[in-house]
Protein 1
Amino acid sequence: MRSFVRAGRGPGLTEENYNTMTTASKIFVAGATGLLGGQIVSNLLDRGASVRALVRPGTDGDKKAALTALQARGLELVEGDITDPVEKLAAAIGDATTVVSAIQGGPDLIIDGQVNLVRAAEQAGARRFIPSDFAIDITKLDDEDNVMIGWRRKAAAAYGDTSLDVISVLNGAFYEVMIGFMGLVDWEAGTVSHWGDPDQPLDMTSVPDTAAFTAAVALDPEAKGTQRFAGEVLSMRQFHQTLERATGRGLTLKNLGTADELRAEITRKAAATQNPFEYVGLQYQWCMVTGKAKFDNVDNAKYPQVKPGSLEDFVRQAAPKA
Ligand SMILES: NC(=O)c1ccc[n+]([C@@H]2O[C@H](COP(=O)([O-])OP(=O)(O)OC[C@H]3O[C@@H](n4cnc5c(N)ncnc54)[C@H](OP(=O)(O)O)[C@@H]3O)[C@@H](O)[C@H]2O)c1
């Protein structure tokens, strides 16, 4: 087995052993052409890490060009797909010690593809795997609460026998998703909608900060198990007030119903479609507003070098102004 530098320390990663780790290990990133994966790669390079990124042969030219530009900073690119035969994927992983997955897709990728990636990582002699979890607290949910989280839980069970150390990074909801994909904010109508208790605390983190925490975890020789991070913990009432402060606009906070009514709405939508992406946004909201997927604690303090930005600053940059 390849040697792996272990720096003795208490909780938290000092700059000294962080740097020791960066020179001693190579990180393999699958999903590097994606929104989160690309930023994980940049963060790792910023820290002086050796990084190899998997790029699919048919990937979009612009997305590939963004990675090609990073080759000047030492990034290695290797062509492949996480569904490739294990031997081929293991050769792509090569001498990497840590495999990070930031892929996105359906169960064929999140379950079967990631299991394949784990088997390839084992064969290559890697030591650690960071799966494409990056969510609310998936350890507290049941498989049927959220279809996308269910796939991640099933994947974890399927590679549960692995010899690799599996480190799951959880970040709550992306700020980008809270003001976008979730469909909560209607800038034109000037409304912020929510279900359930407006005072339930919710975990959220921006994409860049999630990438920075993931890079810190990937380079931390002592990281183990589930690592939880939150840029902000805000209720929907505080979220609404933050958006008003950041934009200088009056926005109406609109209650759409109770958490039980949200559950009924999800059941109705699920019965009417074969496409889970039509209701998964509501499932994320249910998991959050009920408090079921709330972090009990966060691990931000282990990585003081990552200083997550506030939602207010993020919205000031991203949202339409008054
Ligand atoms: N907490 C939240 O609010 C939140 C929100 C959004 C996403 N996420 C999570 O963040 C993670 C990354 O999501 P994202 O939005 O960054 O995804 P994304 O932008 O859609 O990128 C997906 C990546 O996966 C790659 N990929 C897909 N199929 C592949 C295959 N067969 N082999 C190798 N690579 C493959 C894609 O490559 P190509 O470029 O070749 O297609 C791309 O690089 C996921 O776990 C997602 O659930 C969390």
Note: The two ends are 59 Å apart (CA to CA).
Protein 2
Amino acid sequence: MAALFSPFRLGGLELANRITISPMCQYSAVGGSMTDWHVAHLASLALSGAGLLVIEATGVEPRGRISPEDTGLWSDDNEAALSRVLDRVRAVSPIPIGIQLAHAGRKAATYSPWTGSGSVPDEKGGWDTIAPSAVPFREGWRVPRAMTRADMEAVRDAFVAAARRAARLGLRYAELHFAHGYLMSTFLSPLSNRRTDEYGGSLENRMRFPLEVAAAVRAVWPAEAALAVRVNGSDFTAGGWTPEEAGVFARALRDIGMDGVTVSGGGVDPRQEIQAGPGYQLAFAEHVRKVSGIPTTTVGMILTPRQAEAIVAEGKADLVALARAILFDPRWPFHAARVLGIDLAYPPQYDRADPKHWRGGDLLLAGLSD
Ligand SMILES: Cc1cc2nc3c(=O)[nH]c(=O)nc-3n(C[C@H](O)[C@H](O)[C@H](O)COP(=O)(O)O)c2cc1C
């Protein structure tokens, strides 16, 4: 029995296997509302055989979007558009679906990857940004306004309101995006948080606002679903957030009743130095899991079935999240099952492609590097 294909209980959610699909921005929304692209994209991934499909970073308020083309969940229109997409996807697949709720902070109002780079000016649809301190992400980028207590309450309430909408749509998992240099990770990191009030300075102070937001969402998120947080394991920058701090934060998240963490890294400081290779963030996840005991997802170049299997079997992480590998190969879990000797049921429409019915499947798996 492959550990990768064993079930796992995350909060109130029963997952059929340990493979999750990491949230991936598609920059294809209009006014925060999903479009037909999202139907095609999410339906394709819903047929992958993974245990959980997580919808991209979704802005809890308009100024919290990374780009003008990001999805959002602040309005009835956004909710109706998401509901339409969910209806289509659920019509073809029983996969549990979750969503990542996000606020981009000082990295908001930037161009989407294929439309430009850096801050979008007001006259081209950009907007004012907020952050713990009035320090831009990099030179030439928009300078954020340092948040007041009222701003913090507004952001907390926006997370709660979006979570209520997500719960109402029957989403089974929500992941609060507290990583990658977006708003919450800029509170957590000493490189971006220069506050001198009770929300800056010590680790306890830097964690205070993210924990307030997490607790407020916990209070409205259904117990029969799962609620997790994506955290950085490191800023990959001298003087920045560390795996040890991530471990302390994960313990605090567990203590307020969060069901899991996904351990990622980077994005807070442009001076970061990342040596990206297979499993390059796994050590952070392993540390966080060990010191906090909270169910932990690792992400970052999880590429091969045996690599993923070893991670779970050796107890380094409970779940593996795939991003680029599963965009590259949207049937990755089916292929992994074959490699690991597991009989994973294909959708009946695709059953003839199951390698147990034709030699071509195994020849393809063996020959992809030819
Ligand atoms: C197209 C694309 C969009 C992404 N969007 C998000 C996102 O919305 N939220 C997030 O936390 N990470 C996002 N990421 C990062 C991935 O979720 C993942 O953490 C990262 O790509 C490393 O995993 P990988 O090596 O499997 O791609 C994105 C990555 C890609 C490739």
Note: Residues 46 and 93 are 6 Å apart (CA to CA).
